[in-house]
Design a protein that fits this description.
Strand order of the largest sheet: 2-1-4-3
CATH architecture of the largest domain: Roll
Low-confidence stretches: none
Number of strands: 8
Shape: elongated
CATH class of the largest domain: Alpha Beta
Length: 155
């Protein structure tokens, strides 16, 4: 079975574990023996003693392996900051959606939403919004982004 593995500070890796591998052993194979494993979109970590198959990990699943159960994400726009607590396996797309929304975010209109994206604070990286928040978490289980105009490549 092919599984897309997201971890802190790395690009997505493809692994081919046996479906009967325990979640705990899978975390060790990913290089994080004391980590939690999250299925993308899930709030809770997978049970360590369960097999990958029993835990719901299937062909081409996206999982996050890391030590943070929750990540405090801050999004900054026009000198204001909004913070959200999300699971490590939450996608940047879900954070972006909250940041631009009228309720929990900055209330950007449709045309502004189409022109903005998240950028790692203090860097120029505008990561793909399919990446997991936990991939950007620091040792304190926090990640910070700016809401900026998208880089546009013309050619």
């Amino acid at each position: 079975m092919e599984v897309f593995v997201h971890t802190r500070g790395t690009d997505v890796e493809i692994q081919d574990p046996d479906p009967s591998t325990s979640v705990r052993d899978f975390a060790g194979l990913a290089g994080y023996p004391d980590a939690h494993v999250f299925l993308e979109g899930q709030e809770e970590a997978l049970a360590p003693e369960a097999s990958l198959a029993d835990a719901g990990v299937g062909e081409r699943s996206n999982v996050h392996v890391g030590t943070c159960k929750k990540v405090t994400v801050s999004a900054r726009y026009n000198q204001e900051t909004r913070s959200y607590e999300v699971p490590s396996a939450a996608t940047l797309e879900s954070v972006y959606a909250r940041a631009v929304s009228k309720g929990q975010g900055f209330g950007l209109g449709d045309s502004d939403q189409a022109q903005h994206t998240l950028q790692v604070q203090g860097a120029t990286e505008q990561p793909d919004l399919s990446r997991h928040v936990g991939s950007f978490a620091n040792d304190d289980c926090a990640a910070a982004f700016d809401l900026v105009m998208q880089d546009r490549f013309q050619g």
